[in-house]
């Protein structure tokens, strides 16, 4: 979440609790929010990201759900409860063989908002799978909780 205030001499930009990536410094084009930065970088680093439009839409929908987890206060309880439905019986949010961008961002949202206790059982199992991977353990040490 950011706001811009114009003063006589300066433009002051205030960023609160949200990652911001300035894509084009000359045009002052910001990508705001952890989820949107992750989405942007994934598309930038994976040219085939949008090759399967159905899969890309599924990923974007799940990432939007993670954004609700990170940014919303009033919808937080409902968002946490629906995690179990979104995950279903799958091992990972997208596919069954390995974690994806969605798992990384969703894991980060759950950890940052401290909502694991309110999550359904299948989400607890998913969190355990994530926590057992060394990449997630390293990332958890970097999270500002």
Kindly describe this structure.
This protein has 145 residues and is of the alpha+beta class. The chain has a domain of 93 residues: Glutathione S-transferase Yfyf (Class Pi), Chain A, domain 2 (Up-down Bundle), CATH 1.20.1050.10. Helices cover 53% and strands 13% of the residues. It is built from six helices and four strands, in the order ββββαααααα. The protein has a two-stranded antiparallel sheet with strand order 1-2. The chain has a two-stranded antiparallel ribbon with strand order 3-4. β1 and β2 form a beta hairpin. α1 packs antiparallel against α2, α2 packs antiparallel against α3 and α2 runs parallel beside α4. The radius of gyration is 17 Å and the shape is globular. The N terminus is likely disordered.
CATH C-level class of the domain at 50-142 is: Mainly Alpha
Q: Roughly what is the average pLDDT, rounded to an integer?
A: 83
Tally of helical runs: 6
The SSE order reads: EEEEHHHHHH
What is the CA-atom radius of gyration, in angstroms?
17 Å
Structural class: alpha+beta
The tally of strands reads 4
CATH-defined topology of the domain at 50-142: Glutathione S-transferase Yfyf (Class Pi), Chain A, domain 2
Name the shape in a single word. globular
| Poorly predicted runs | 1-15
> What percent of the residues sit in helical stretches (DSSP H or I)?
40-55%
Identify the strand order in the major beta sheet.
1-2
The biggest beta sheet reads: 2 strands, antiparallel
Distance between the ends: 18 Å
**Share of β-strand residues:** 5-15%
If classified by CATH, what would the architecture of the domain at 50-142 be?
Up-down Bundle
């Amino acid at each position: 979440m950011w706001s811009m205030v114009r003063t006589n001499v300066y433009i002051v930009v205030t960023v609160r609790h949200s990652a911001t990536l300035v894509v084009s410094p000359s045009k002052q084009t910001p990508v705001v929010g952890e989820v949107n930065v992750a989405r942007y970088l994934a598309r930038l680093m994976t040219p085939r990201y949008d090759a399967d439009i159905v899969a890309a839409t599924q990923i974007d929908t799940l990432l939007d759900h993670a954004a609700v987890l990170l940014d919303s206060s009033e919808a937080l309880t409902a968002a946490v409860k629906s995690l179990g439905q979104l995950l279903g019986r799958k091992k990972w949010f997208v596919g069954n063989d390995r974690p994806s961008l969605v798992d990384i961002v969703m894991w980060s949202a759950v950890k940052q908002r401290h909502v694991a206790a309110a999550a359904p059982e299948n989400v607890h199992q998913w969190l355990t799978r994530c926590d057992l991977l060394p990449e997630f353990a390293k990332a958890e040490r970097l999270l500002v909780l």
